[in-house]
């Protein structure tokens, strides 16, 4: 078995979700289709609720920022006099969500709505999050060795907690010391990793970030974070340069913590 030694200065392990702890297929074949199939009905049912209107406002703001992009779908502003046809407005939001999802965009607005939609499905027991079998045993071992374990995903913090709280391994939320999402910044921007370190109260070189996406790994590395790229079944391939440049692991069990020897 390949073994990757974790540098002694590392005290925090920061985990990506999709393609790292969890199969991409779970996200692409279960989570995302659930949103596409149910978004219209969800908006029709919850339209009058404050949370839903906040989600729509955020999506509208994002749509304004996206207006210069090819194929962008606008969400008209509400007139405020109650004369708007909700069905017309709902269809604009649905079309915008479909457009964003067709590009796998990671905007906070889209992720917030998705998280709110998944909540009902997880809480009703209709969905359970999948984790690779090496994840839970390894995380337990790291924590026993004194490591802190955080999650950084484009999925909203609320959605992350749903996944860890309703998984095929049971409720494993207690294994995570904290969560970060795109509210702290995008995963391909190195400043996000500096902010995460400062929020945790450590230096960037105290963190080891595990991700499947080389652009995220590069951004973290630029901030001084240690990285390993996780190669899982179904993940996008890496270029030869990426394979040479990054430390690669195919299972969390390949990480060796000197402190746990
Ligand atoms: C709570 S994760 C849901 C999956 C998701 O929406 C997503 O965008 C995954 O992104 P990641 O940063 O975990 O690769
Ligand atoms: Mg990922």
TrEMBL record:
It is found in: Cytoplasm; Nucleus. Binds 1 Mg(2+) ion per subunit. Pfam families: Hydrolase. It comes from the Eukaryota. Keywords: Amino-acid biosynthesis, Cytoplasm, Hydrolase, Magnesium, Metal-binding, Methionine biosynthesis, Nucleus. Substrate binds at residues 153-154, 187. Belongs to the HAD-like hydrolase superfamily. MasA/MtnC family. This is Enolase-phosphatase E1. It comes from Rangifer tarandus platyrhynchus. The gene is ENOPH1.
């Amino acid at each position: 078995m390949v073994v990757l030694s974790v540098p002694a200065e590392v005290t925090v392990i920061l985990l990506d979700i999709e393609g790292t702890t969890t199969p991409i297929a779970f996200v692409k074949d279960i989570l995302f289709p659930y949103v596409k199939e149910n978004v219209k009905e969800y908006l029709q049912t919850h339209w009058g609720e404050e949370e839903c209107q906040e989600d729509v406002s955020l999506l509208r703001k994002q749509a304004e920022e996206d207006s210069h992009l090819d194929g962008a779908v606008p969400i008209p502003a509400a007139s405020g006099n109650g004369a708007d046809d909700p069905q017309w407005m709902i269809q604009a939001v649905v079309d915008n969500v479909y457009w964003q999802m067709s590009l796998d965009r990671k905007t906070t607005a889209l992720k917030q709505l998705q998280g709110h939609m998944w909540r009902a499905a997880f809480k009703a027991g209709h969905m359970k999050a999948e984790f690779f079998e090496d994840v839970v045993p390894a995380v337990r071992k790291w924590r026993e060795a004194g490591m802190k374990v955080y999650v950084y995903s484009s999925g909203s913090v609320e959605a992350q907690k749903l996944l860890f709280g309703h998984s095929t391994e049971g409720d494993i939320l207690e294994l995570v010391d904290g969560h970060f999402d795109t509210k702290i910044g995008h995963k391909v921007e190195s400043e996000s990793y500096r902010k995460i370190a400062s929020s945790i109260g450590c230096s960037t070189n105290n963190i080891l970030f595990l991700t499947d996406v080389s652009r995220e790994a590069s951004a973290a590395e630029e901030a001084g974070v240690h990285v390993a790229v996780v190669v899982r079944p179904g993940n996008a391939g890496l270029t030869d340069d990426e394979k040479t440049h990054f430390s690669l692991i195919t299972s969390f069990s390949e990480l060796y913590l000197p402190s746990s020897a």
